[in-house]
Specification:
- The structure is a single chain.
- This protein is mainly alpha-helical.
- It contains 6 helices and 2 strands, in the order H-H-H-H-E-E-H-H.
- Helices cover 54% and strands 3% of the residues.
């Protein structure tokens, strides 16, 4: 368990240390942390995760909207910029922000941390949206 945690932490640190992040680099980093090649990721699983009720009466789409190219709103009414990179060029370009928001949102929606594979699948799906 400690070895797996160390590998994921090292992967996240490596992601954070990269100067100019891109959605592809972040996706690929999470895929590596999950022991997968990018070609093994599932766009279908990424979309299913986005739309699935996490068991707490919430899903990603609750705040980010059914169409992740559109702006969403928090429960408090605060504007959320589009989640899909095609709707927001700045999305998935800062590893520290990505980790911060995955941490908060996975906990809020799922009641647990998202796995590296879940993060990679979600980013892969969001990257596929034109």
């Amino acid at each position: 368990m400690n070895k797996a945690l160390a590998i994921v932490s090292l992967s996240v640190w490596t992601l954070s240390a990269t100067a100019a992040e891109t959605p592809q680099r972040l996706r690929d980093g999470y895929a590596r942390a999950a022991g997968l090649a990018p070609a093994e990721l599932s766009v279908t699983e990424g979309e299913a995760m986005y739309r699935r009720d996490g068991g707490r009466g919430r899903q990603c789409a609750s705040c980010h909207t059914e169409n992740p190219r559109r702006q969403g709103r928090t429960r408090a009414g605060k504007l959320i910029e589009p989640l899909a990179p095609s709707g927001n060029a700045a999305r998935f370009t800062d590893a520290a922000k990505v980790e911060k928001w995955f941490g908060r949102n996975c906990s809020d929606v799922l009641g647990r941390a998202c796995s590296a594979q879940e993060k990679a699948n979600l980013i892969a799906w969001l990257m596929s949206i034109n």
